[in-house]
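Tokens help. One example:
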Amino acid sequence: MSLWGHIVAAGYDRFMARQERAGLADRRHELLSRAYGTVVEVGAGTGANLAHYPAAVRELVLLEPEEPMARRLEGRLGETSVAAHVVRAPAEAIPLPDASFDVAVCTLVLCTVRDPHRALGEVHRVLKPGGCLLFLEHVRAEDPALARWQDRLHLLWVRVGHGCHCNRATLEEIGAAGFTIDEVERSRIPKAPPIVRPMIVGSAKRSSSAGI
């Protein structure tokens, strides 16, 4: 882990505080109120979602590959009454059995995974047939002018944002990984820099086939 990675982990909650207070926390709560049964959260970070999981969740597995983030995540497990534990693993290689979860959660993580298609393939694999993917992600802008700025600033933002890609077409990636989009809302992350402001919130269903 680089020094910058440790700095990002230490400051992440403070950096995101304005966005959370301005409405992002409410969007998390609304989305995660639909979680139930066995749930796997990909790239759980410092635990911003923990307080929003409902009692309908029976078991929660929190994947986080970066040690500084994982330690902070473990320190916040008391914020949820759900039975939860942390697994140190990347989204591209989830060490969990096939078809073992009712719901998968991805919030502000698919921008940072190294291989989004492989990561979503792993999410597809560990979900039960008909299982649900809940997502809240910043994405490539529909506005061509803003999308061009995302492209121009992409290489700089990847470095500043510790691997965050500001111009990914994440909704298309979800569909390409074998999911059927049930619903999606295009919105904005409040108080975020313009190049990471466009946001999608919604759900998708795992196909009934065994693989993608």
User: Anything to note?
Assistant: The CA atoms of residues 189 and 197 lie 5 Å apart.
